[in-house]
Specification:
Length: about 400
């Protein structure tokens, strides 16, 4: 994205007693900083539905990301997927969100609940054009995204929620909009928005979903760079050069590592103060340096952040913990997952002598792997990530 950054998050629940989800969501990043998001819903549930939805989402995301016209992509899927002889409906429905680098969103929908757009926290009715491709009615829209716009795609498991329980005919689109308008706040990430909606669907199903249910949220937001300094430089003579690069970058500055924070304090000519208020945490304490937004321990803290990142991309079960607590890993997670749109790592390759203790399960390779894995997770969250080594 040019002026805005895109935040993509999705969550799903399986039909009750099913091991596989019959819905599938694919996110593909294009070379020109565009994204293709496809949510496909296979007919029925279980293995068959999972295969069909996966096939649909893979075909569409690959073709759209390759630059082929939307009409050709949809026609290929329409011709590929058969119609059920008993129910007379397609074996898979789909929603495509094509997020272009100029902040334009192309929406293509087939038989899924219509995408909801929240603008300034309220429902915004965008223009829709109907067309017929391969004998199927396709809804097409083009919307110019604005800051804090939230696009929400879903499978019909959402609209079926509560059927025969709280709602006679299921959870209507209008009621879903009311729920989102009362729940979604500007600070909420796309992942958390999708999680809130899925959790409410699960509640309406009385925790026994009668259908596979999936939600994908796309949020446009102002770019917020965050810089992370992790480890001292391999060559001590490069310390000042490393610090100068790190502190010259705009945005928040996080320092992870005891030796690293000592060197940073010396470079800045400031005191390093340890914060001993770390009750109810088995993580090392955080510290303070004037001019630095957050100072934490290194490998142990970042290892926990990586655990939270992996969970965030899946079931997001640790959210209630790291979103509220004040330990170093929770603070780093909030900044990286919720605040940052661009993350710049400045990583030192020095080997910490303390890590050579055979009683400590920390090695240089583990440290480098942490950076690589965390970088991968952040990119999956839609962050723009750079890594510079010293």
């Amino acid at each position: 994205m040019n002026d805005l950054s895109v935040d993509i998050g999705y969550t799903w629940i399986n039909c009750h007693d099913e091991l596989l989800c019959g819905d599938h969501i694919d996110v593909v990043e294009q070379d020109d900083n565009s994204y293709v998001v496809v949510l496909a819903d296979g007919l029925g549930h279980g293995v068959k539905a999972s295969i069909l939805s996966t096939l649909t989402s893979k075909i569409l995301s690959t073709m759209v990301a390759s630059g082929l016209p939307i009409e050709e992509c949809v026609a290929t899927v329409a011709e590929t997927l058969p119609v059920c002889s008993e129910r007379h409906v397609a074996y898979s429905t789909f929603t495509v969100l094509h997020l272009l680098a100029d902040d334009t969103v192309e929406i293509v929908q087939y038989d899924n609940p219509q995408v909801i757009l929240l603008r300034n926290g309220k429902n915004f009715e965008y223009p829709i054009t109907e067309m017929t491709i391969g004998g199927k009615k396709i809804l097409s829209s083009t919307v110019k995204a604005e800051e804090d716009d939230v696009f929400i795609a879903m499978s019909d498991g959402c609209t079926h929620a509560g059927m025969g329980l709280e709602y006679q005919f299921g959870w209507s689109r209008g009621d879903i909009i009311k729920f989102l308008e009362s729940t979604v706040q500007q600070k909420h990430t796309a992942k958390n928005i999708s999680t809130y909606l899925i959790e409410e669907c699960e509640r309406l199903y009385d925790y026994k979903p009668g259908d596979d249910t999936s939600v994908c949220a796309v949020r446009f937001r102002k770019r917020e760079p965050v810089n992370v300094l992790f480890g001292p430089s391999y060559n001590p003579d490069d310390t000042d050069k490393m610090m100068e690069l790190f502190f010259s970058k705009s945005g928040k500055h996080l320092i992870c590592g005891g030796t690293t924070s000592t060197l940073a304090a010396k470079y800045l000519g400031k005191e390093l103060e340890i914060d001993l208020n770390f009750n109810q945490s088995n993580l090392p304490p955080v510290a303070k340096i004037e001019g630095v937004d957050l100072v934490t321990e290194g490998v142990i803290t970042i290892s926990r952040v990586l655990d939270y990142a992996k969970d965030y991309l899946e079931e997001n079960t640790y959210y209630d913990y790291w979103s509220m607590n004040q330990d170093g890993a929770s603070k780093v997670s909030r900044v990286l997952f919720e605040e940052a749109t661009d993350v710049n790592f400045v990583v030192g390759r020095a080997i910490n002598p303390a890590h050579q203790n055979p009683d400590l399960p920390i090695t240089f390779n583990i440290k480098m792997n942490l950076v690589e894995e965390l970088t991968k997770c952040l990119r999956q969250m839609g962050k723009q990530v750079t890594v510079q080594y010293f």
